[in-house]
Amino acid sequence: MVDILRKDTGALIHHSGADALEGASLDGLRLDWALLPGARLRGASLVGADLCIADLRGADLRGANLTGVDASGADFTGADLSGADLTDARLKMARLDGADLSRATLTRAHLLLANLTRTMLRDARLEHADLSYATLPGAVLVGADLTAADLSFADLAHASLDYATLTRATLRRTTLRGASLRSADLLMALLDGTALAGADLTDASIARTVFANCLDLCDARGLDRVRAVDPASVDVSTLRAASSDAPRVLTMAGLLADAAERAAAPAPPAASGGLPGGQLADAPARG
Predict the structure, then answer these.
(1) Partners of 220 in the β-ladder
(2) Largest CB tally within 10 Å, which of 15, 51, 193, 235?
(3) Chain centroid to CA 269
(4) In the predicted model, is pLDDT for residue 283 greater than 50?
(5) Using CB atoms within 10 A of its CB, is residue 283 exposed (0-12), middle (13-18) or buried (19+)?
(6) What is the pLDDT at residue 266?
């Protein structure tokens, strides 16, 4: 038998007649403020459960179904959530530092102000996730899918985003200083006021990507190795900050090459009736 107690008062929240909670069905239960450090919940189903401010430090939640759970303010420090399904989960201000979320599904998850310091998110699915104001320094997001994710004001300093997909992602005022984005996909991403000093963009792909107010873009590494599948947009503020490095930034964005190709293109054929060399024909005499 397993008793789940409230962490602040010690009151009984839930009693299970089973010997363990692995694979248990706990769907829709109110487990807010629950005391569950080190709990063995592997493969458990907690669909729609209330885990607000619960203590799940070091818990084993591998492969658990946490779809639609509300775990705002919960503490998952060091927990193992690899392969777990957190689709539509609410994790506002949750602590996930040092947790393992490898291959986890966090599609449309709300991680506003969440702490994901040094969190393992390798190959995680974060499509349309809200990671605004989240702290992710040193997090590992290698191969993660962040399509259309909102990373506004998030801190990803020294994070690993190699081979990550950031198509249509929003990185407004995001910190990427020292982060690795080697071979990352930044197609149609918005980088507005993004801090990029020391970031490694080697072999990253861009196409219709927007760089606005990226005042330290020229301090990023690997600019000469960026793959411009289609030209990007770079605003005047970014170019002014680049100063003498502006041509290198424009080349990275595929804009100088595009302009050179247009300049080298053969002139269009003269209009019907025109003379060679662009001369104008004399006007016919009147009268």
Answers:
(1) none
(2) 51
(3) 48
(4) no
(5) exposed
(6) 61
From residue 238, alpha-carbon distances to 125, 235, 241 in Å are 31, 6, 5
Residue given tokens 């990507």 in the structure block: 209
Where b means 16+ CB within 10 Å and e means fewer, 244-265 reads eebeebbbbbbbbeeeeeeeee
pLDDT recorded at residue 271:
54
The amino acid at residue 275 is L
Mean pLDDT of the chain: 91
Q: Which amino acid is at 103?
A: R
Identify which of 183, 158, 71 has the alpha carbon closest to the alpha carbon of residue 101: 71
264: left (phi over 0), alpha (psi -120 to 50) or beta: alpha
d(CA 16, CA 176): 45
Q: What is the pLDDT of residues 144-188, one digit of tens each?
A: 999 999 999 999 999 999 999 999 999 999 999 999 999 999 999
* Band of residue 274 on the pLDDT scale cut at 50, 70, 90: very low
Q: How deeply is 209 buried, as exposed, middle or buried, from its count of CB atoms within 10 A (0-12, 13-18, 19+)? A: buried
109 is written with which tokens? 């998850």
Find how far residue 227's CA is from the centre of its chain. 19
Q: Cα-atom radius of gyration of the chain, to the nearest Å?
A: 26
Q: Tell the residue number behind the tokens 């994901």, with chain if given.
A: 116
Distances (CA, A) of 188 to 98, 159, 172: 31, 21, 13
Instruction: State pTM to two decimals.
Output: 0.87
Taking CA atoms, 16 is separated from 89, 224, 233, in Å, by 24, 60, 58
Residue 110: other Cβ atoms inside 10 A:
21
Structure tokens, 15: 């009693």
